[in-house]
Predict the structure of Fuculose phosphate aldolase.
Amino acid sequence: MLLEKEREAIVTFGRKLITSQLTTGSGGNLSVMNREANLIAIKPSGVDYFEMQPEDVVVMTPEGRIVEGDKKPSSEVNFHLGLLQSRPEINAVVHTHSVYATTIACLNWELPAVHYLVGYSGNKVPLAPYATFGTQALADHIAAAIGHYNACLMANHGLVTVGPNLATAFAAAEEIELVARIYYQARCIGNPVILSDEEMAVVGEKFKTYGQKK
């Protein structure tokens, strides 16, 4: 089976999307690219996360040709392929419908640095304009909006995060959802104080040495 480890990771982290309350039903999607094989594993469209098996995960070329799997790939395959092709340091994409991030996206707001954990994206989380799900227009909007950031809100839709591996992209989705909740709650009380770009630059440098490095 091609990309066995990547397909198993899609199953594992797909279930975590549900248990971490980052999406519901079969919503959201994930992909992982194996740069050496030049192949991408992506969640199949409309398949329940707890019923999905590694062999259900679709394997594709970066150009979108299916090379293994008998199911349709995610309806959002366009923006997965676009992101994985546009930035060589990206090997994984996670898309969620997490409640607080989506709430901010439905207001058509960016997510500012109300908390330093927004650094999982950068000094903010930018916003991509609305387009119908699954369209090339949506893929183009996300590619233009995300730039060098590791997360992007999708207007009236949800959140997308990227990373060098699936664990990192998933962690970004979790932390950005936390920051979105903090921002929502702070706005309910008053006007939150936003961290400066200079402080977020310091945070970004500290993130580079955070945790246990090999």
In short: The chain has a mean pLDDT of 96.
